[in-house]
Structure formats: structure tokens, C-alpha cells
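Re: the 503-residue chain
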Amino acid sequence: MRVIKVKDFVQSVADGLQFISYYHPKDFVQAMHKAYQKEASKPAKDAIAQILINSKMAAYGHRPICQDTGMVCAFVKVGMDAKLDKTDRTITELVNEGVRQAYLNQDNPLRASMVNPPHNGRKNTKDNTPAIVHIDMVPGDKIEIELAAKGGGSEFKSKFKVLNPSDSIVDWVLEMLPTMGAGWCPPGIIGIGIGGTAEKAMLLAKESLGEKIDMHEVLERGPQTLIEELRVELYHRINALGIGAQGLGGLTTVLDVKIHEYPTHAACKPVALIPNCAATRHVHFTLDGSGVAKLPVPCLEDWPDIAEVDKTQMRRVNLDDLTQADIESFKPGETLLLNGKLLTGRDAAHKRIVDMIKAGEDLPVDLKGRFIYYVGPVDPVGDEIVGPAGPTTATRMDKFTEFMLSKVGIAGMVGKAERGAQTITSIKKHKAVYLMAVGGAAYLISKSIRKARVVGFKDLGMEAIYEFEVEDMPVTVAVDSQGTSVHETGPKEWKVKIADMMT
């Protein structure tokens, strides 16, 4: 029987979570680079460029790829002939201790996002515990651990349905993809689980996301199994939807499609779909009693050299003296470089603002005529002004938007992903604007922030209202003052273009 030290188990989990916070897997970088090279849509190509530049910066700086450093999911396979040297804590407790150490690491603190209880109260646990842990007993004398850190923007775009045995999985997936919007930050990977029960299908989909990206290899040699044939069909047909990078329209929506299956009841066909975003983070290692896991540190030359977008042809916008005429001159899909003072606010801040105004209370900062950036930044380290500070999904703020425009008087918003129909109507009615920053480029965006201070709701932590002073922060006009949304026009245009290419 092989003995594995508890301290090695915990340290390996902590090291693994730090590792994946700033290192993309090599296969992901290569697949994203291929997508960049072939992309014909300029907005999509620029977005992929930012993702790749951000990835390389994070690898060099050992700082998070994304401000949402994720919920920890651990698949632990314990060999039946393996033994821990101490048995006073469970496997789940040991994983949680590793999570705690990783997320509280002073050299690279990671954002804690877990709240407990999940309904009433919702207090942040402060150390990102507990993890979601799946344990299996397997033959052998080693312990295998697969770690993933899943951000909320992708994890909660998951879909599930029990199909009839004769129903088409392809048709269902193609029906679901457009409903997922861009909050999962494509291009990414789609995991599909087929069979078992409801919870088993979801687990299969999640497990599949830990596999190596090999779609280009499959395409080059041709599919050799029925599952590979299904993967290839879905890959081509999903990309033919034209959703593209960040939902802006383009050639690549998915880099790969992964499928796991399991026997199921004769009367049904459970199917689950879980996306992995542009902040794909996972690592696999084995503990054999010889010490802490040795993680495969990548060679920084593996990252492609991507030139930053030429800013000389872009419009610079000064937020401090922006006029209504300026806002109404912004064109859909136009890239702007923001300068000046930008306020931040997410779900909790929006709710408190609404409650305070309804109660007749004064706000801690005047929001009239200001722009709000939907962000919850990572804490800074060293001489950083702010940690990685990428956008969160704007759709969550839709329920507050009419109030924020009509009662609070904000002039515009910055976030990621699409806005709902009612919100677009409100933007048009108030001649406001919604700007989109690239999800998956958090560290790169943080370098545009020159000053940062909390100006309201300090008790909300990363959800407090900050005032950022930004310099040349790149954004795309996603909904203009006339209500034109590039998340609607872009995919429609590219779906037609791709269909024409295939004929």
C-alpha cells in the first residue's frame, strides 16, 4: 500500500489552483491562435487578439487570466491501495484546505466568489471555499486529481434536457447555443454529456471539459468513431451559426466539442451541455507518495506574438467632458478608447442604489451623467493600481437598467455580452449607450487603469463602487443610442457569410 502525505495533497491542490489562475493550457493557446489566424471578422479578430495578449501577460506576470477566478471543481480518483498518512480529515476537507491556501496566497490573491447560504444572506466565505468535489474509488495505489476553476459567466450558461430516444442531439444543441448569449465568452469549448440520469449527464459534460483540445487533429485525419463524427458535425454547425468571438459575429464560436456518454434508461436520452470560456482553466496531476505534484510549467515561447491593435485610428473618448452629442455619435461596432473617470458597480451595488433611492436616501457618489463599468476586480499586489479587472456579464444588470437610466441618470454602461430586448429599448429611449469590453482580457484591461479608489459601499468588497481613472481602455460600441445591437447584427451577418462560403 502506497502512503501519500496529507501535506503533499493539500500543497498540490493549492499549487494547482495558483498554476491555472495564470497559465492557460498549451492546447488552448494553440487552438485560439489558429482561430485568430483564420478569423475574417475584424471585431472578432481584435477580441481574440486581446485574449491572447492577456494570456501571455498573465503567464509572465503570474496574475489571474480573468477577474472571476472561479468556483473550484475537483475530480479526485483515489486508488484503493493508496493511503493518506493522516485520516483526521476527509478528502473534501483536504481539497478545501488547498483552495483556502491558494485563494489567500499573498503573492497572487485570487478573488473569492463563493457565498453561503446560497439564498438568504449570501455572505461571501472570503476564501472561496467550499469546492465542488467529486470522489471516486479506482484500482491502483495513487491519487489522481483534476482541478478546474469555472467562472460564473460560463458555468451558469449550462443546459440540460431529457430528449426522447429518437430526438436529435445536434438539433437540440443548435437550439441552445443562441440562447446562451455571449456571457460565456466564446470562443471556448463545449462539453456534452449523454446518458445516465440528470445529474450524471451534467457530470459527464463537466468531466469532458478536462480533455485535451484535439479537434484540428480529428479534422486532419478524419473522425474514426461515431462520437468523433458527432463532435465534428457539432463543431462545424455551431461555428456556422456565426456567433463568433464575444458574440460579435465571426468564424469561430467553439474551438472544440467534447462528448462523454453513459448507458441510460431505454425510455429517455438525457443530454447536458456545459461551456468552457476564454478563461479555460484546468490541470491534472497524480500523487504517488513521492512528494508534491510536479506541474508542467509551460515555455513562454509557446505563446504567439500578437501585435496590439493599432490605436491611432481609434476614437479617444474623454469621459470627464462627454456630451450627449458625443454619445449619439458612437457607431455600432466602433472601437473606442476610454479616458477619464469611470465608476464601477455590479449586482449588489445596483440593488443597494435602487433601495436607497426608493427610501429617499442620498447616494455616496453622484451617478448622474456617469458611466458604470460592471466589474468586480481582483485585489492588487505590489505596485498594482488594481488587480485583473475584466467585465462581468451585463445581462444580470438588465433588471436595474431602466431605473438607472431614468431615476439615477447614468449616461452609459460598460460590460460584456448582450443586453435583453427591454434593456435595448430603454437605452434607445434615453439615448444612452452600452459599451463592451472583452471578457477574458482582465489583466490586459487592468493596465488601462491608472488610479482606483472606493467611493461607495466599501462593505461589499469587490462589489463596492470604485472610481477608476482609465487611459485608452478599449471598448466596442455594443448598443448605440438608436438601439442597434451588434450582438444581433453581427451573428446574423456572419451566419449568412459563412453559409455563402460553404456553397
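The first strand starts at residue 2 and ends at 4.
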